[in-house]
Amino acid sequence: VVDIKVDEELKTLSADIISRACFGSSYSQGNQIFAKIAILQEALSNPSLLFGFLNFSLFPTESEKKIKSLRKEVDALLLKLVRDRQKESQSGGTSEKDLLQMILQSAANNSTDRPQQYMLKTDQFILDNCRSIYFAGSETTALTASWTLMLLALHPEWQERVRVEIAEVCGDDDDQLRQCLKDMDNLSKLKTLTMVIQESLRLYGPGVILAREALAKMKLGDFTVPEGVHIWTLIPTVHRDPENWGPDANEFKPERFANGVSEACKYPQAYVPFGHGSRSCIGQTFGMVQLKIVLPLILSKFSFSLSPNYQHSPVYKMLLLPEHGIRLLVRRVQ
Ligand code: HEM
């Protein structure tokens, strides 16, 4: 039996996965860049600054100088990777189908026939997207996997049901399982696991706020919202509303999703772990597929219970984080 902080392990795994998806064969350089972005994120302690707003004072402090130089370093490394890829593409030598290629394609489509003065903006577009994808795509999925394991540690009966389902769909053998999880049809057969993930996203979804700005004066129910006002919807509040979910709204009951989201509550549009509308999460399918592969690989080998050292303290720091980590006791499944 070992006592580990699963959130730390899963964060590394998830960064690895997003780096491969984003940078394909240049993945190890991508990983180095992401490692620096993680340090930058820690230094900023406000990840929104990663999305492009750096409001430094006229006389920067030591820490502001450090952040500025770290960011310059990240951008220079990213730009080198981008230039290498662009050269490769121009000489017809790339067949990469990764996120970087898609971002480059989209930047190229946007900038065709644009005057020279917009060229820098194209680079900025590429850098902002690479940085955002690390933050939006890596931590969110790792946190969902971590909170899910915490809930399964608390509810061994559900942990066992998921393990049995994995064996039924994919068999017990290791190689067979790996092969099985490569097939999307098999992933959609993992109904119990899907219900567990949906319930975990309801109670501990990593995204906490849906933010929108009123671009014009508008009516919202009985309210008149003036132009320019920012409206924040607090996801945990709508996800735990007894009026919508019933008196057991705060309890872990994956069975409520047995017949899908539409029958899990009165107002299904209020289940928004990936947001809503035209600015909802672009990585929803990618995140869910990752969870449906990673969790079976882990659960088929290991069982989990809460460590006596686990301190439950979800805190909001842009995302819903476990303040003291998620410490679980891990045993090899016999
Ligand atoms: C379980 C995993 C994930 C969760 C719970 C999650 C959740 C969210 C939420 C709540 C939003 C805000 C949506 C809104 O305002 O309506 C969002 C936006 C976004 N997500 Fe995710 N996300 C996850 C995984 C990913 C992944 C894997 C990627 C990228 C590969 C990604 C990329 C993005 C991007 C780029 C946005 C901004 C979209 C925009 O502003 O148009 N997310 N996500």
Automatic annotation (TrEMBL):
<dbReference type="InterPro" id="IPR050665">
    <property type="entry name" value="Cytochrome_P450_Monooxygen"/>
</dbReference>
<dbReference type="GO" id="GO:0016020">
    <property type="term" value="C:membrane"/>
</dbReference>
<dbReference type="GO" id="GO:0004497">
    <property type="term" value="F:monooxygenase activity"/>
</dbReference>
<keyword id="KW-0479">Metal-binding</keyword>
<keyword id="KW-0408">Iron</keyword>
<dbReference type="GO" id="GO:0016705">
    <property type="term" value="F:oxidoreductase activity, acting on paired donors, with incorporation or reduction of molecular oxygen"/>
</dbReference>
<dbReference type="Pfam" id="PF00067">
    <property type="entry name" value="p450"/>
</dbReference>
<feature type="binding site" description="axial binding residue">
    <location>
        <position position="281"/>
    </location>
    <ligand>
        <name>heme</name>
    </ligand>
</feature>
<keyword id="KW-0349">Heme</keyword>
<dbReference type="InterPro" id="IPR036396">
    <property type="entry name" value="Cyt_P450_sf"/>
</dbReference>
<comment type="similarity">
    <text>Belongs to the cytochrome P450 family.</text>
</comment>
<protein>
    <submittedName>
        <fullName>Cytochrome P450 714A1-like</fullName>
    </submittedName>
</protein>
<dbReference type="GO" id="GO:0005506">
    <property type="term" value="F:iron ion binding"/>
</dbReference>
<keyword id="KW-0812">Transmembrane</keyword>
<dbReference type="InterPro" id="IPR017972">
    <property type="entry name" value="Cyt_P450_CS"/>
</dbReference>
<keyword id="KW-0503">Monooxygenase</keyword>
<dbReference type="InterPro" id="IPR001128">
    <property type="entry name" value="Cyt_P450"/>
</dbReference>
<keyword id="KW-1133">Transmembrane helix</keyword>
<keyword id="KW-0560">Oxidoreductase</keyword>
<keyword id="KW-0472">Membrane</keyword>
<dbReference type="GO" id="GO:0020037">
    <property type="term" value="F:heme binding"/>
</dbReference>
<dbReference type="InterPro" id="IPR002401">
    <property type="entry name" value="Cyt_P450_E_grp-I"/>
</dbReference>
